[in-house]
Amino acid sequence: MPADAASDVRIHHRACNLCEAICGLEIRVAGDEILSIRPDDADPLSLGHICPKAVALKDLYEDGDRLRRPIRRTESGWQEMAWEEAFDLVADRLCSIVEQHGGDAVANYLGNPTVHNYGGLTHGPRFLGTIKTKNRFSATSVDQLPHQLLAYWMYGHQLLVPIADIDRTDYLLILGANPMASNGSLMTVPAFPKRLKALQARGGRMVVLDPRRSETAEVADEHLFIRPGTDAAFLAGLLKIIDNENLGHPGKLAAMEDGLEVALADIGALDLDKLAAHCGIKVETIQRIAREFAAAPRAAAYGRMGVSTQQHGTLCQWLIQLLNIVTGNLDREGGAMFTRPAVDLVDNPTSRPGSFGRWKSRVRGLPEFGGELPVAALAEEILTAGEGQVRALITVAGNPVLSTPNGTQLDRALDSLAFMVAVDFYLNETTRHADVILPPTCTLEHDHYDLIFHTFAVRNTARYSEALFERPADARHDWEIFEALGDRIAKRLGAKRAPHPRPDQVIDMGLRIGPYGGMKKHPLNLSLAALKAAPHGVDLGALEPCLPERLANPGKFILCAPPEMIAALAVFASELDDAQPAALSLIGRRHVRSNNSWMHNSQRLVKGPVRNHLLMHPDDLAAHGLADGAMVRVASRVGAVDVIVEASDSMLPGVVSLPHGWGHDRSGTRIGIAEAHAGVSPNDLTDELRLDAVCGNAALNGVPVTVVAA
Ligand SMILES: Nc1nc2c(c(=O)[nH]1)N[C@H]1C(S)=C(S)[C@@H](COP(=O)(O)OP(=O)(O)OC[C@H]3O[C@@H](n4cnc5c(=O)[nH]c(N)nc54)[C@H](O)[C@@H]3O)O[C@H]1N2
Ligand SMILES: Nc1nc2c(c(=O)[nH]1)N[C@H]1C(S)=C(S)[C@@H](COP(=O)(O)OP(=O)(O)OC[C@H]3O[C@@H](n4cnc5c(=O)[nH]c(N)nc54)[C@H](O)[C@@H]3O)O[C@H]1N2
Ligand code: SF4
Ligand SMILES: [Mo]
Questions:
Q1: Which of 65, 279, 422, 448 has the most CB atoms around its CB within 10 Å?
Q2: Residue bearing the CA closest to ligand 1, atom 13
Q3: Are residues 170 and 237 in the same domain?
């Protein structure tokens, strides 16, 4: 680089906000050109780790397909419009529908990037609250709903999710998670490979249960194949053995638990042979794992998507909590611990502990959680006529056509809406149905503080990222879009609306009143200014025991036997006798170069070998008379897709796998590179009627399918 250009180079430090790992980045820029994106070695959490997606932030920033101005649908196609005109139009259309049909006629859906964008969190709910509606949906109910519900029931707050203390544990038991590809989830664990190596180097073990020998299973000390949807049997088996053999030692937890004996008695009544037969893991193996887990000085059980999004998701998460509790590993160093984040959303005047079942969905009666209904009900709420029918939809940072069960039906339902507005910077499979699309700035154009993922991290740290590029004059941040619409809607509907601070001001206050803030007289005296002065982030130390003080229910106890779980266990037990495994069932998978349904418009991420084929065991291929590389038709109750099948002995026979987020061949989108690498969507196969019965979370894994030559 010539000397004069070099002098123009600035070095910017920030946290990546694409996935939950929140890795520190060092970005070199000249003018508005990004020269390089590398790890920030000084980040106290990510330890010099990044993945290929970070580098694709450059592609996102430069992407010519990314929308930069509002567009509206017209007879002659999409037309750009001015922001003020767009806000007026959207507010007017939404309010007219509310005035005519009531608030419930306007639904909203918040997608995953909302939690990766702090303006979405500080201002999104305030905007959506201007229209009182029961029909609020989000990606929560195709994801972590069971974790939040149990955290609320057992510990008193939906965000009190115990985090596996990977840096100090001796035994990590993982069910249905693939952090080698996902970089961790509800366990913000950047540099997972490095942390795992350290665990193994100090003599620890990692055991993985998965129907596929995943990238994480490959590096585990032991991998056990398990039949999809049967983990509850394995977990109940562990608990039964630990109880029978008196291996439990809850220690200090004994003084704060309520109902552990009741729960263990019901679990103890189950038949071990039946449990073993159900999950396909030998009794002796379950016995050995139970003894190893109980004997380990410090152990942690952790389960994610494979056990969250299945029919017994909540049951699995409950049994995982019980396993950590009964062995005394909850709130113990090296066990499953609670974080103490710098902006503490649990111990905070605006804290929302959670709620369950305050209302039900109109058509199917699915329960509310935290003010939201399960998204599996969205299409039927649009398609079923009657009082309270959904006629308009607001989507924010979501692509439910590709990410929720029976996406084909939702695709059709969106077509029938009277009005739809999308806050999103891509014209994709979902937003193509909108009447107006309002594109916010992209991540490098705004500042960020990770409210959520510091809360779920394996170490307490705090980091504020300044904007790398100034917001272009005619661009708007998400939160500015929310404010502009919220103001207009509140005015028209006559709702009260107090002034609200900017996101950075909200964070500054959160830091000051937080556990390391001046108002708590903490020596670090954290504030936004303090974080700005520490651009690599601030280390707040390893997780620390904090029970019972941190429990959020008034009695400061752990509710071990929520009545709903005792009932769910009984249902599960009654099904054990006549459970007939499907001949073939479908599960998902993630790849480190993909990010849910987006980032597929980056050439550098989609190039190389095709990663969205159907994986099938060679024996299954032979039994079905299919050849490796053939085009096959995969069908379920709700639909069919044609895709190339790839032989893979990483699959448990009887199980096939397809990654989600693909299926970019739908017409009328503007994502050229993604379209050229379309793939198919497994959510054209997943079934909106297959749910976790406790809470209505989608059972995206373990879907019965057939596979024939196409
Ligand atoms: N690269 C990349 N990273 C991501 C994402 C991404 O799309 N791409 N998405 C992010 C998001 S939003 C999330 S929520 C996280 C998810 O993070 P993870 O949960 O770690 O990721 P998955 O790859 O979905 O892992 C689920 C595993 O469960 C297995 N499985 C399926 N069914 C069952 C079952 O019945 N029992 C058991 N025991 N296992 C089963 C699957 O084979 C798979 O290996 O990843 C985040 N990180
Ligand atoms: N079969 C199957 N289905 C699944 C899963 C699975 O494992 N298997 N995983 C589920 C999980 S865990 C999740 S989290 C969901 C994700 O599903 P969704 O949350 O519905 O969708 P995403 O694919 O994350 O799409 C995000 C959208 O937000 C836009 N976007 C990105 N950043 C921003 C921003 O800063 N502001 C705004 N306004 N928009 C932005 C993108 O352009 C994109 O359109 O998918 C779920 N669906
Ligand atoms: S692992 Fe996640 S946070 Fe880290 S660089 Fe990759 S996408 Fe970004
Ligand atoms: Mo997710």
A1: 422
A2: 185
A3: yes
Burial of residue 182, with CB atoms counted within 10 A of its CB: 0-12 exposed, 13-18 middle, 19 or more buried:
buried
Sheet order of strands, 706-709 included: 703-704, 585-587, 655-657, 614-616, 640-647, 631-635, 706-709
Cβ(466)–Cβ(15) below 8 Å: no
Overall domain count for the chain: 4
Ligand 4 centroid, distance to 492 Cα (angstroms): 35
Structure tokens at 487: 């103001």
Atom of ligand 1 nearest to the CA of 593: 1
Q: Are residues 486 and 622 in the same domain?
A: no
In whole angstroms, what is the distance from residue 263 CA to residue 247 CA?
A: 16
Domain that residue 691 falls in:
582-709
The DSSP letter of residue 372 is B
Tell me the sheet residues that pair with 209.
Answer: 175, 224
pLDDT of residue 581: 83
pLDDT at 579: 77
Q: Do both 179 and 89 map to the same domain?
A: no
Atom of ligand 3 nearest to the CA of 52: 6
What letter represents residue 235's amino acid?
Answer: L
Q: Could you tell me the two tokens for 542? A: 């390893």
Using 50 as the pLDDT threshold, list the residues of the chain that sit under it: 1-4
CATH number at residue 372: 3.40.50.740
Residue 344 is classified by DSSP as -
Q: In testing the pocket of ligand 1, which one of 142, 178, 404 has its CB within 8 Å of the most ligand atoms?
A: 178
pLDDT digits (tens, 9 = 90+) for 543-575: 999 999 999 998 999 999 999 999 999 999 999
Closest ligand 2 atom to 596 CA? 23
Give CA–CA dist 17/465, Å, rounded: 10
